[in-house]
Amino acid sequence: MEKSDIESKFCKDCKRTHPISEFHRNSRSRDGYAFYCKSCANLRQEASRRRRGTNPRKRPSQAIPAGMKWCPDCAEIKQVTEFPTAGRRRKVHTYCRTCHNKRGRESKQRLYGGSREYHLRRRYGIGVADFERMLAEQGGVCAICGRAAPEHVDHDHVSGGVRGILCFNCNGGLGHFRDDVEHLAKAISYLRGTTPWVEISPGVYRSNSRTPAVRRSRII
């Protein structure tokens, strides 16, 4: 049966069969609809809010003007532009940007112990303890230049594997060179000055031989 042909569905909570219009959409379920009817889903949501210690939702009694939206957390009616959007269809979130960000911080603290742990695990697959261990193995300094207290995780952009802890400049430098060993080798030769500078136009120089480099100043 196609999803569009479904006319009714059984709710697992109230043990009753309702018209399909009584169920929220859920793209992750097999039939495209939520497991629970709207009434039971609302009860579940309110119970969850009570467990978390948040205030129950009380929709405003007045009509919400066009271009405005009500935020359940701060219970304020705000401009739609104050609500974040997501997805290709730019769907507007339920909570205003301030409350949305607050919820995000609380979730990261509750689930990961902080935003730093969340960021490391989400992007690199390591935690703060792993970061500190790797940094200690490097002697507490950048793995390239030796600068103290580096804060950036360097990883292989192909495999995703973590390679070490670098300072901002070294990590950015590898990124700009696209982790290309040949480009880095050429940059080393360039900096060592294996060729002299020749003025090809006023104030512009280029190298063109194999002798030690000596930059010639422009004569005015």
TrEMBL record:
The keyword Nuclease applies. Coiled coil: none annotated. GO terms for molecular function: endonuclease activity. The keyword Ribosomal protein does not apply. Keywords: Endonuclease, Hydrolase, Nuclease. InterPro entries: Endonuclease_7, Endonuclease_7_sf, His-Me_finger_sf. It holds the Pfam family Endonuclease_7. SUPFAM superfamilies: His-Me finger endonucleases (SSF54060). This is Recombination endonuclease VII. It comes from Actinocatenispora sera.
